[in-house]
Amino acid sequence: MATTSTTSATSSTSTTATLLSSLGAGSGINMSQLAEQLSNAQFAARLDQLTNKNDKLTTQISAASTLKSMASTIASSFGDRVRTGDLAVAPVIANVSVATVTKGVATGNGTSTLEVTALAKGQTLVSTAVAPATTPVGSGTLTLRFGTVSGTTFTADTARAQVDVTVAAGATLDDVALAINATGSGVTAYVATGTAGAQLVLKGKDGAANAFQLEAAEDPLDPGLSALAWTPAAGTARLKSAAADAAFTLDGVARTSASNTIADAAPGLTLKLTGTNIGAPTTISFSDPGTAITTAIHDLTSALNEMVAELNRDTDPLTGTLNNDPGARTMRRGMTQLASTIVMPSAAAGSPSTLADLGLKTNRDGTYTLDTTRLSATLARDPAGSAAMFTSGLFGVYATLDKFSRTVTSSTDPASLGGSVTRMTKLQTSITKQQSDLASKQETLRTSMVSRFASLDGQLSAQKSTLSFLQAQVAAWNAKT
Predict the structure, then answer these.
(1) 478, CA 20 to 30 Å: which among 23, 234, 355, 432?
(2) pTM of the shown model
(3) 236: which residues sit within 8 A by CB, 6+ positions away?
(4) Which residues does residue 206 pair with via DSSP β-bridges, in sequence order?
């Protein structure tokens, strides 16, 4: 700041000297240049001060934004890794032709047995053949009624409303299929052309309770629609597939399902049945993600230390750009508490619940080290509990890292790095306005000086002319004497 004042003072002195020299010499003056120099000297100190403040804020915003980005990157990268599933206990089935298995909401363990005796199916019904396909099928109303079928008996589900389909005169099988699909009833229709001609194919949803019968109320003046109707009493010639539930035995318990996909059939296990294995149960076991967890914790420790190193540089008492920033202090406090934070509040007694239980250790200088002995012991003692910490739910390692990231990056919290960036950005906006205002005032002063100096220049010219005349007269008088 002292250098700026000296520069401004020197500029002002130099400009004044130029003016005095020009006046003393009686020569012409560059009024525009003179006004520029004087107006610059008037505002130079304040403009330099604002520029220095703005440059400092730019550096601080950059440092805070870098730390924000590092926190967000660590959380999002860890979240991506968790979502791939390699850090969690995952089910593995021995007979892959029977079912595909995926991780459920909970964490599984041990070994399960699975025997599938039947797959869930939807009802498939076909009409008699129509040739050619453009032949009108009559008009009236088709009614889909849902329920269950047992032999030749249909039991309607009174909780489900019937679906009426209006068929206009001149309609073909294609028109009927379009009208049925438009109802959104869960029954889909299409026309298949086989060797006998065109046939209407109706397919219902999986599950015994999704069986249906098709009733017809035809227009007596345009008959034919009743040929599409079907009830169980009419026989099974047109019934190509009966609606049925899946039947399976899991861990010795016989169960049924309207769908072949059974979410959370057991803790940590979601099934999608694809085949049967009557009399030959298969086994489902759970993987041990210990190696993947160890690698992930190693990587997390390294990433956290990179962020600590950046934070230490930015908060250095002498050279740090954020050495007095509240957001940086909040981040420091959060990182100090990270290892001891409870990430699994509902963990059973003796199960790991903190990152410290997985070996993460905070040093006095804020850096982290990984206690591999403690990590190995935890994984060996409770592999399922360790794996349970790596989920994308409300709790766990990822949720804790994500919460930390959101805390330090929040733009509405004045005590966060995000809040610091918001505050400093507003200050920059204010400084920019002040610079603009000073520039306007400087231009106004320059314009005023140009006008005033132009008037002075005219007066000096007139005075010089008078002086020259008087000097000539005096010279003439002296010559006569």
Answers:
(1) 23
(2) 0.58
(3) none
(4) 122
